[in-house]
Amino acid sequence: MQASQGSSQGRNVGLGLALASAFSFGGSGVAAKPLIEAGLDPLHVVWLRVTGAALVMLPVAWRHRRLLVRRPALLAGFGLLAVAGVQACYFAAISRIPVGVALLVEYLAPALVLGWVRFVQRRPVTRAAAIGVVLAVGGLASVVEIWSGLSFDALGLVLALGAACCQVGYFVLSDQGGDADDAPDPLGVIAYGLLIGSVLLTLVARPWGMDWSVLGGSADMNGSDVPAALLLGWIVLVATVIAYVTGVISVRKLSPQVAGVVACLEAVIATVLAWVLLGEHLSVPQIAGGAVVLVGAFIAQSSAPKEASGPVVAGGDGHPLSVQESSVHEAHAQEPPARKTNAPEGELSAGRTAT
């Protein structure tokens, strides 16, 4: 009886943490866009986010310093794709198109992963997974209002798609050897991914040329002046550090399938926050299309057959990471044996832990 109550409490805590992670990730674009409109280059905002989070995570990186020798390729891939690539493309996209639209385009990643599995790896996928892909693509056509000749900035849509592709690249990378006995702790992967991403972004963004005075002023948020430093603090501490950490812990307390459902709320949260705080209103067809995208993405990510490999957790604005194998077994230990054989391929879930 006590064990059952403890298990129920653990799931409730996990659900709360997963919701907190989805909310934290979903608020990143809403906080970043006013800074971009105030005069900061999107790459500079990304550099500030990643570098600030990397400094906060330094103690974790030191604790897992052996990862540099054990898994250099994994860390480099996470830093290049999941951190630098996803976030740079996403922030550049939201400087040209609405936050909700950019994130919904990014949710094509599960469908693109299945395309990689089917046509590159030449492995079969289920009919339900294929239906999920069709739904996601069809819903996206409604989101971007393709019947009106793409009402949004074409380059912005391409950049959002680039963020989705960066996620796919990291999902594929982390599928290689993610089932090893010495699977790395995801917090260590996050910490070093942020450090490596910060170094790469420093070379590309050249922050020494940034207009630092913007951070000392205020940014306009739909007619209200908000201190730029406050927005930056939210992006670094809440939308990055807290989002990653709560996401990782939630995956350990929930089954990946449940975490995947919660992950889909991130796009909803981002769209609602952008509507309320930035005044970015979407039309009824776009909202309906967004719902179809999320349904298709969920079906796609939860229906493909899985071979023996560790799942991948996707993070909000595009933030993936390998989940430690032992934690996955722990999460599945509470499920009936029949479900253990049906975990999805290349699973994306909240935790979301991405860029």
Please give a structural write-up.
The protein has 355 residues and is mainly alpha-helical. Helix content is 67%, strand content 3%. The chain has helices at 2-26, 28-37, 42-56, 58-63, 67-70, 72-94, 99-106, 109-120, 127-143, 154-174, 186-205, 228-253, 256-263, 265-278, 284-303, 325-332; strands at 218-221, 224-227, 312-313, 321-322. A two-stranded antiparallel sheet has the order 1-2. A hairpin with a 7-residue loop joins strand 3 (312-313) and strand 4 (321-322). Helix 1 packs antiparallel against helix 12 (228-253), helix 1 crosses helix 14 and helix 3 (42-56) packs across helix 12 (228-253). The radius of gyration is 19 Å and the shape is globular.
Q: Would you count the extended β strands for me?
A: 4
Which quaternary structure do these chains form? single chain
Q: Could you report the average pLDDT, rounded to the nearest whole number?
A: 76
User: How does the overall form come out from the CA principal axes?
Assistant: globular
Q: What are the secondary-structure elements, in order, as H or E?
A: HHHHHHHHHHHEEHHHHEEH
Low-confidence parts:
304-316, 318-355
The tally of helices reads 16
Beginning-to-end CA distance, first to last residue:
41 Å
Class of secondary structure makeup: mainly alpha
Gyration radius (Cα, Å) is 19 Å
The biggest beta sheet is recorded as: 2 strands, antiparallel
Strand percentage lies at under 5%
Give the strand order of the largest sheet, numbering strands 1, 2, ... along the chain.
Answer: 1-2
Query: Percentage of helical residues?
Result: 55-70%
